[in-house]
Protein backbone atom coordinates (compact mmCIF):
# COMPACT_ATOMS: atom_id res chain seq x y z
CA UNK A 1 0.00 0.00 0.00
CA UNK A 2 1.29 3.43 -0.92
CA UNK A 3 1.91 6.09 1.77
CA UNK A 4 -0.99 8.26 0.53
CA UNK A 5 -3.43 5.30 0.66
CA UNK A 6 -2.39 4.46 4.27
CA UNK A 7 -2.99 8.06 5.39
CA UNK A 8 -6.46 8.05 3.80
CA UNK A 9 -7.42 4.78 5.59
CA UNK A 10 -6.35 6.16 8.99
CA UNK A 11 -8.39 9.29 8.43
CA UNK A 12 -11.53 7.29 7.62
CA UNK A 13 -11.03 5.11 10.74
CA UNK A 14 -10.67 8.13 13.02
CA UNK A 15 -13.78 9.74 11.58
CA UNK A 16 -15.82 6.60 12.22
CA UNK A 17 -14.61 6.31 15.87
CA UNK A 18 -15.53 9.93 16.63
CA UNK A 19 -19.01 9.51 15.25
CA UNK A 20 -19.61 6.45 17.56
CA UNK A 21 -18.26 8.13 20.78
CA UNK A 22 -20.66 11.13 20.47
CA UNK A 23 -24.17 9.65 19.93
CA UNK A 24 -27.21 11.83 19.45
CA UNK A 25 -29.27 12.66 22.63
CA UNK A 26 -32.20 10.22 23.42
CA UNK A 27 -35.77 11.16 22.75
CA UNK A 28 -37.73 12.41 25.88
CA UNK A 29 -40.13 9.84 27.59
CA UNK A 30 -43.77 10.84 28.18
CA UNK A 31 -44.72 11.53 31.88
CA UNK A 32 -46.69 8.68 33.60
CA UNK A 33 -50.44 9.10 33.56
CA UNK A 34 -52.26 9.95 36.86
CA UNK A 35 -53.74 6.91 38.67
CA UNK A 36 -57.50 6.54 38.27
CA UNK A 37 -59.27 5.98 41.60
CA UNK A 38 -62.84 5.65 42.81
CA UNK A 39 -63.67 7.90 45.77
CA UNK A 40 -66.45 8.08 48.33
CA UNK A 41 -67.41 10.73 50.86
CA UNK A 42 -66.74 10.41 54.58
CA UNK A 43 -70.08 10.18 56.39
CA UNK A 44 -70.97 11.51 59.86
CA UNK A 45 -73.63 9.60 61.81
CA UNK A 46 -74.47 8.18 65.24
CA UNK A 47 -73.45 4.61 65.94
CA UNK A 48 -76.35 2.29 66.83
CA UNK A 49 -75.63 -1.40 66.45
CA UNK A 50 -75.21 -4.66 68.35
CA UNK A 51 -72.23 -6.97 68.77
CA UNK A 52 -72.17 -10.62 69.82
CA UNK A 53 -70.45 -11.21 73.14
CA UNK A 54 -69.93 -14.48 75.02
CA UNK A 55 -71.51 -14.73 78.48
CA UNK A 56 -72.30 -17.28 81.18
CA UNK A 57 -75.36 -18.00 83.28
CA UNK A 58 -74.55 -18.29 86.97
CA UNK A 59 -76.87 -18.90 89.94
CA UNK A 60 -77.95 -15.77 91.77
CA UNK A 61 -77.06 -17.46 95.05
CA UNK A 62 -74.99 -20.57 95.70
CA UNK A 63 -73.83 -22.11 98.97
CA UNK A 64 -71.77 -25.08 100.05
CA UNK A 65 -73.47 -26.68 103.04
CA UNK A 66 -71.09 -27.40 105.94
CA UNK A 67 -72.00 -28.42 109.52
CA UNK A 68 -71.62 -26.00 112.44
CA UNK A 69 -70.96 -28.72 115.01
CA UNK A 70 -69.08 -32.00 114.99
CA UNK A 71 -71.26 -35.07 114.56
CA UNK A 72 -72.24 -38.04 112.46
CA UNK A 73 -74.60 -37.67 109.52
CA UNK A 74 -77.80 -39.40 110.60
CA UNK A 75 -80.01 -38.69 107.59
CA UNK A 76 -79.83 -36.74 104.32
CA UNK A 77 -83.28 -35.99 102.99
CA UNK A 78 -82.24 -34.64 99.59
CA UNK A 79 -80.08 -35.65 96.66
CA UNK A 80 -78.79 -34.11 93.46
CA UNK A 81 -81.64 -32.43 91.59
CA UNK A 82 -83.91 -32.09 94.63
CA UNK A 83 -85.87 -28.83 94.78
CA UNK A 84 -86.19 -27.38 98.26
CA UNK A 85 -87.86 -24.42 99.91
CA UNK A 86 -86.30 -22.11 102.45
CA UNK A 87 -86.41 -23.79 105.87
CA UNK A 88 -86.74 -27.37 104.57
CA UNK A 89 -84.68 -29.94 106.48
CA UNK A 90 -81.68 -31.03 104.41
CA UNK A 91 -79.44 -32.97 106.82
CA UNK A 92 -79.75 -34.22 110.39
CA UNK A 93 -76.67 -34.97 112.49
CA UNK A 94 -76.27 -36.92 115.71
CA UNK A 95 -73.84 -35.91 118.48
CA UNK A 96 -74.19 -38.00 121.72
CA UNK A 97 -71.69 -35.79 123.54
CA UNK A 98 -74.05 -32.84 123.21
CA UNK A 99 -76.73 -34.84 125.08
CA UNK A 100 -74.29 -35.35 127.95
CA UNK A 101 -73.32 -31.69 127.91
CA UNK A 102 -76.97 -30.69 128.02
CA UNK A 103 -77.64 -32.97 131.01
CA UNK A 104 -74.65 -31.54 132.82
CA UNK A 105 -75.77 -27.98 132.06
CA UNK A 106 -79.30 -28.72 133.30
CA UNK A 107 -77.89 -30.16 136.55
CA UNK A 108 -75.69 -27.10 136.99
CA UNK A 109 -78.68 -24.83 136.52
CA UNK A 110 -80.72 -26.73 139.09
CA UNK A 111 -77.85 -26.57 141.60
CA UNK A 112 -77.45 -22.83 141.05
CA UNK A 113 -81.18 -22.27 141.47
CA UNK A 114 -81.18 -24.33 144.68
CA UNK A 115 -78.31 -22.30 146.08
CA UNK A 116 -80.15 -19.13 145.20
CA UNK A 117 -83.26 -20.27 147.07
CA UNK A 118 -81.13 -21.17 150.09
CA UNK A 119 -79.36 -17.83 150.34
CA UNK A 120 -82.60 -15.97 149.67
CA UNK A 121 -84.19 -17.80 152.61
CA UNK A 122 -81.25 -16.99 154.86
CA UNK A 123 -81.42 -13.35 153.80
CA UNK A 124 -85.11 -13.20 154.65
CA UNK A 125 -84.47 -14.76 158.09
CA UNK A 126 -81.55 -12.50 158.93
CA UNK A 127 -83.38 -9.42 157.75
CA UNK A 128 -86.31 -10.40 160.02
CA UNK A 129 -83.94 -10.78 162.98
CA UNK A 130 -82.38 -7.41 162.29
CA UNK A 131 -85.75 -5.68 162.01
CA UNK A 132 -86.93 -7.34 165.27
CA UNK A 133 -83.78 -6.20 167.12
CA UNK A 134 -84.01 -2.74 165.63
CA UNK A 135 -87.60 -2.44 166.90
CA UNK A 136 -86.66 -3.65 170.38
CA UNK A 137 -83.65 -1.34 170.51
CA UNK A 138 -85.99 1.63 170.57
CA UNK A 139 -86.48 0.81 174.26
CA UNK A 140 -83.26 1.69 176.07
CA UNK A 141 -81.42 -1.20 177.63
CA UNK A 142 -83.39 -4.03 175.95
CA UNK A 143 -80.91 -4.87 173.10
CA UNK A 144 -77.19 -4.41 173.18
CA UNK A 145 -75.85 -2.09 170.47
CA UNK A 146 -73.31 -4.72 169.36
CA UNK A 147 -76.04 -7.31 168.77
CA UNK A 148 -77.86 -4.89 166.50
CA UNK A 149 -74.66 -4.17 164.57
CA UNK A 150 -73.93 -7.89 164.05
CA UNK A 151 -77.47 -8.51 162.81
CA UNK A 152 -77.16 -5.67 160.30
CA UNK A 153 -73.84 -6.95 158.96
CA UNK A 154 -75.21 -10.49 158.66
CA UNK A 155 -78.13 -9.24 156.55
CA UNK A 156 -75.73 -7.25 154.34
CA UNK A 157 -73.58 -10.36 153.79
CA UNK A 158 -76.67 -12.31 152.86
CA UNK A 159 -77.53 -9.72 150.20
CA UNK A 160 -74.07 -10.24 148.62
CA UNK A 161 -74.55 -14.01 148.67
CA UNK A 162 -77.93 -13.63 146.95
CA UNK A 163 -76.40 -11.43 144.22
CA UNK A 164 -73.64 -14.00 143.64
CA UNK A 165 -76.17 -16.82 143.52
CA UNK A 166 -78.28 -14.92 140.99
CA UNK A 167 -75.15 -14.47 138.81
CA UNK A 168 -74.49 -18.21 139.01
CA UNK A 169 -78.03 -18.95 137.93
CA UNK A 170 -77.71 -16.54 134.98
CA UNK A 171 -74.43 -18.12 133.90
CA UNK A 172 -75.90 -21.63 134.17
CA UNK A 173 -78.86 -20.60 132.04
CA UNK A 174 -76.54 -19.11 129.38
CA UNK A 175 -74.53 -22.33 129.32
CA UNK A 176 -77.70 -24.36 128.84
CA UNK A 177 -78.91 -21.97 126.14
CA UNK A 178 -75.57 -22.27 124.33
CA UNK A 179 -75.75 -26.04 124.35
CA UNK A 180 -79.37 -25.92 123.16
CA UNK A 181 -78.28 -23.65 120.33
CA UNK A 182 -75.55 -26.11 119.36
CA UNK A 183 -78.12 -28.91 119.40
CA UNK A 184 -80.24 -26.92 116.97
CA UNK A 185 -77.28 -26.99 114.55
CA UNK A 186 -77.71 -30.76 114.29
CA UNK A 187 -80.58 -30.00 111.92
CA UNK A 188 -79.36 -28.24 108.75
CA UNK A 189 -82.11 -26.37 106.91
CA UNK A 190 -82.18 -24.81 103.44
CA UNK A 191 -81.14 -21.12 103.61
CA UNK A 192 -83.13 -20.24 100.47
CA UNK A 193 -85.27 -21.76 97.72
CA UNK A 194 -83.15 -23.70 95.30
CA UNK A 195 -81.91 -26.93 93.79
CA UNK A 196 -79.38 -29.35 95.24
CA UNK A 197 -76.68 -29.63 92.59
CA UNK A 198 -74.12 -31.75 94.47
CA UNK A 199 -74.21 -34.37 97.23
CA UNK A 200 -70.79 -35.46 98.45
CA UNK A 201 -71.39 -37.30 101.74
CA UNK A 202 -73.76 -39.95 103.04
CA UNK A 203 -75.19 -41.16 106.39
CA UNK A 204 -72.52 -42.31 108.82
CA UNK A 205 -69.87 -39.81 107.75
CA UNK A 206 -68.20 -37.82 110.52
CA UNK A 207 -68.25 -34.08 109.84
CA UNK A 208 -67.30 -30.99 111.78
CA UNK A 209 -67.21 -27.20 111.59
CA UNK A 210 -63.49 -27.18 110.72
CA UNK A 211 -64.16 -28.94 107.42
CA UNK A 212 -65.25 -25.73 105.72
CA UNK A 213 -62.18 -23.81 106.89
CA UNK A 214 -59.87 -26.63 105.86
CA UNK A 215 -61.37 -26.72 102.38
CA UNK A 216 -62.77 -30.20 102.81
CA UNK A 217 -65.73 -31.49 100.87
CA UNK A 218 -69.11 -29.90 101.70
CA UNK A 219 -72.07 -32.13 102.46
CA UNK A 220 -74.24 -30.52 99.77
CA UNK A 221 -74.25 -27.65 97.33
CA UNK A 222 -77.41 -25.61 96.93
CA UNK A 223 -78.06 -23.05 94.17
CA UNK A 224 -80.87 -20.62 93.52
CA UNK A 225 -81.97 -21.52 90.00
CA UNK A 226 -85.13 -19.39 89.95
CA UNK A 227 -83.03 -16.28 89.52
CA UNK A 228 -79.78 -16.27 87.57
CA UNK A 229 -76.94 -13.88 86.86
CA UNK A 230 -75.97 -13.51 83.21
CA UNK A 231 -72.36 -12.32 83.47
CA UNK A 232 -71.08 -10.52 80.36
CA UNK A 233 -67.43 -9.42 80.03
CA UNK A 234 -67.91 -6.25 77.98
CA UNK A 235 -64.84 -4.83 76.13
CA UNK A 236 -63.88 -1.43 77.50
CA UNK A 237 -64.55 0.23 74.13
CA UNK A 238 -68.23 -0.79 74.35
CA UNK A 239 -69.20 0.17 77.91
CA UNK A 240 -69.75 3.88 77.42
CA UNK A 241 -73.53 4.21 76.97
CA UNK A 242 -74.93 1.24 78.92
CA UNK A 243 -77.50 1.91 81.67
CA UNK A 244 -79.08 -0.06 84.49
CA UNK A 245 -82.47 -1.41 83.44
CA UNK A 246 -81.60 -1.47 79.73
CA UNK A 247 -83.00 -4.65 78.13
CA UNK A 248 -80.53 -6.88 76.30
CA UNK A 249 -81.23 -9.89 74.07
CA UNK A 250 -79.36 -13.19 74.39
CA UNK A 251 -79.57 -16.80 73.27
CA UNK A 252 -78.43 -20.15 74.69
CA UNK A 253 -77.36 -23.34 72.89
CA UNK A 254 -80.29 -25.31 74.35
CA UNK A 255 -82.78 -23.05 72.51
CA UNK A 256 -80.85 -21.72 69.49
CA UNK A 257 -83.91 -20.37 67.69
CA UNK A 258 -85.30 -18.45 70.67
CA UNK A 259 -84.29 -15.00 71.85
CA UNK A 260 -84.41 -14.20 75.57
CA UNK A 261 -84.28 -10.76 77.14
CA UNK A 262 -82.98 -9.54 80.49
CA UNK A 263 -82.28 -6.11 81.99
CA UNK A 264 -78.85 -4.81 82.97
CA UNK A 265 -78.83 -5.05 86.79
CA UNK A 266 -75.26 -4.54 87.98
CA UNK A 267 -72.28 -2.75 86.39
CA UNK A 268 -68.93 -3.37 88.06
CA UNK A 269 -67.36 -0.06 86.87
CA UNK A 270 -63.98 -1.83 87.02
CA UNK A 271 -62.02 -2.92 83.95
CA UNK A 272 -60.07 -6.16 84.30
CA UNK A 273 -56.51 -5.23 83.37
CA UNK A 274 -55.80 -8.73 82.05
CA UNK A 275 -58.69 -8.95 79.58
CA UNK A 276 -59.56 -5.24 79.21
CA UNK A 277 -63.21 -6.08 79.86
CA UNK A 278 -65.75 -4.93 82.44
CA UNK A 279 -68.03 -7.55 84.05
CA UNK A 280 -71.71 -6.63 83.71
CA UNK A 281 -74.57 -8.68 85.17
CA UNK A 282 -78.08 -9.13 83.83
CA UNK A 283 -80.92 -10.41 86.03
CA UNK A 284 -82.55 -13.50 84.55
CA UNK A 285 -85.84 -14.77 86.00
CA UNK A 286 -85.96 -18.53 85.56
CA UNK A 287 -89.05 -19.60 87.49
CA UNK A 288 -89.95 -22.09 84.74
CA UNK A 289 -86.54 -23.76 85.10
CA UNK A 290 -85.76 -23.78 81.38
CA UNK A 291 -82.29 -22.27 81.77
CA UNK A 292 -79.49 -24.03 83.63
CA UNK A 293 -76.80 -22.38 85.77
CA UNK A 294 -73.38 -22.77 84.19
CA UNK A 295 -74.66 -22.57 80.61
CA UNK A 296 -72.91 -20.37 78.09
CA UNK A 297 -74.89 -17.70 76.24
CA UNK A 298 -74.42 -15.29 73.36
CA UNK A 299 -75.47 -11.73 74.14
CA UNK A 300 -76.44 -9.22 71.46
CA UNK A 301 -74.83 -6.29 73.21
CA UNK A 302 -76.11 -2.84 72.17
CA UNK A 303 -73.43 -0.34 71.19
CA UNK A 304 -74.64 3.24 70.89
CA UNK A 305 -73.09 6.70 70.88
CA UNK A 306 -74.89 9.88 71.83
CA UNK A 307 -72.68 11.85 69.45
CA UNK A 308 -71.90 11.53 65.73
CA UNK A 309 -68.70 9.91 64.47
CA UNK A 310 -67.15 9.50 61.02
CA UNK A 311 -67.60 6.40 58.87
CA UNK A 312 -65.93 5.07 55.72
CA UNK A 313 -66.19 1.73 53.90
CA UNK A 314 -64.12 -1.10 55.33
CA UNK A 315 -62.20 -1.22 52.04
CA UNK A 316 -61.16 2.43 52.44
CA UNK A 317 -58.91 1.58 55.38
CA UNK A 318 -55.51 0.03 54.74
CA UNK A 319 -52.20 -0.19 56.55
CA UNK A 320 -48.51 -0.63 56.11
CA UNK A 321 -45.88 -1.59 58.64
CA UNK A 322 -46.04 1.80 60.38
CA UNK A 323 -49.67 2.87 60.61
CA UNK A 324 -53.29 2.47 59.53
CA UNK A 325 -54.59 5.10 57.14
CA UNK A 326 -57.14 6.16 54.55
CA UNK A 327 -56.24 7.92 51.31
CA UNK A 328 -57.89 11.30 50.96
CA UNK A 329 -58.04 12.88 47.53
CA UNK A 330 -57.47 16.63 47.59
CA UNK A 331 -56.56 18.92 44.64
CA UNK A 332 -55.93 15.91 42.40
CA UNK A 333 -53.39 14.31 44.74
CA UNK A 334 -53.47 11.35 47.11
CA UNK A 335 -52.96 12.15 50.80
CA UNK A 336 -52.41 9.49 53.43
CA UNK A 337 -54.34 10.26 56.65
CA UNK A 338 -53.52 8.20 59.73
CA UNK A 339 -56.66 6.94 61.51
CA UNK A 340 -57.82 4.68 64.29
CA UNK A 341 -60.76 2.40 63.66
CA UNK A 342 -63.77 1.85 65.92
CA UNK A 343 -66.90 -0.22 65.47
CA UNK A 344 -67.71 -1.80 62.12
CA UNK A 345 -71.32 -2.19 61.01
CA UNK A 346 -72.90 -3.12 57.68
CA UNK A 347 -69.70 -2.80 55.67
CA UNK A 348 -68.59 0.55 57.09
CA UNK A 349 -66.35 1.35 60.02
CA UNK A 350 -65.77 4.22 62.40
CA UNK A 351 -62.55 6.16 61.86
CA UNK A 352 -60.91 8.71 64.12
CA UNK A 353 -58.28 11.02 62.72
CA UNK A 354 -57.74 14.27 60.79
CA UNK A 355 -60.86 13.82 58.68
CA UNK A 356 -64.09 15.74 58.22
CA UNK A 357 -67.52 14.80 56.96
CA UNK A 358 -67.66 15.13 53.18
CA UNK A 359 -63.93 14.47 52.59
CA UNK A 360 -63.36 12.27 49.55
CA UNK A 361 -61.36 9.13 50.23
CA UNK A 362 -60.31 6.28 47.94
CA UNK A 363 -62.99 3.62 48.20
CA UNK A 364 -60.53 0.72 47.80
CA UNK A 365 -57.31 1.86 49.39
CA UNK A 366 -53.89 0.35 48.83
CA UNK A 367 -50.36 1.35 49.74
CA UNK A 368 -49.56 1.13 46.03
CA UNK A 369 -51.15 4.57 45.78
CA UNK A 370 -48.33 6.64 47.19
CA UNK A 371 -48.67 9.72 49.35
CA UNK A 372 -48.60 12.83 47.12
CA UNK A 373 -49.23 10.89 43.90
CA UNK A 374 -51.43 12.58 41.30
CA UNK A 375 -54.74 10.80 40.84
CA UNK A 376 -57.81 11.08 38.70
CA UNK A 377 -60.86 10.69 40.94
CA UNK A 378 -64.24 9.27 40.00
CA UNK A 379 -67.13 9.32 42.48
CA UNK A 380 -68.07 5.81 43.53
CA UNK A 381 -71.35 4.23 44.54
CA UNK A 382 -71.96 4.50 48.32
CA UNK A 383 -73.30 0.98 48.33
Number of helices: 4
SSE order = HEEEEEEHHEEEHEEEEEEEEEEEE
Shape: elongated
As residue ranges, the low-confidence spans are 4-12, 14-26
The CATH homologous superfamily name of the largest domain equals Efflux pump adaptor protein, beta barrel domain
* Overall strand count: 21
CATH top level of the largest domain is Mainly Beta
As a whole number of angstroms, the C-alpha radius of gyration is: 48 Å
Provide structural commentary.
This protein is of the alpha+beta class. The protein folds into four domains: about 35-45 and about 305-380, conserved putative lor/sdh protein from methanococcus maripaludis s2 fold (Beta Barrel); about 50-60 and about 225-305, Beta Barrel (Elongation Factor Tu (Ef-tu), domain 3), CATH 2.40.30.170; about 65-90 and about 190-225, RNA polymerase II/Efflux pump adaptor protein, barrel-sandwich hybrid domain (OB fold (Dihydrolipoamide Acetyltransferase, E2P), Beta Barrel); about 95-185. About 25% of the residues lie in helices and about 40% in strands. The protein is built from four helices and 21 strands. The chain has helices at about 5-20, 95-135, 145-185, 210-215; strands at about 35-40, 45-60, 60-65, 70-75, 85, 90-95, 185-190, 195-200, 205, 220-225, 225-235, 245-250, 255-265, 275-285, 295-315, 320, 325-330, 335-345, 350-355, 360, 375-380. The chain has a six-stranded antiparallel barrel with strand order 2-11-14-13-12-15. The chain starts with a helix and ends with a strand. Mean pLDDT is about 85; it is low at about 5-10 and about 15-25.
Amino acid sequence: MTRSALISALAISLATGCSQSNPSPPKSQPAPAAAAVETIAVVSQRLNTTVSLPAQLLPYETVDVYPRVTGFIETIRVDRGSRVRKGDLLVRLSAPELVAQRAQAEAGLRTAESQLVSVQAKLASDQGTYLHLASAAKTPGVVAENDLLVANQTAAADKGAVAAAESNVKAARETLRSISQMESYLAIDAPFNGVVTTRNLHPGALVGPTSGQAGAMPILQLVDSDRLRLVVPVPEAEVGEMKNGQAVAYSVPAYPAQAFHAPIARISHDVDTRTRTMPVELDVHNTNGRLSPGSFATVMWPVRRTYATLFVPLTAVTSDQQHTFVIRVRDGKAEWVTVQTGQAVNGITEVFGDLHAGDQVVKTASDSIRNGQEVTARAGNPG
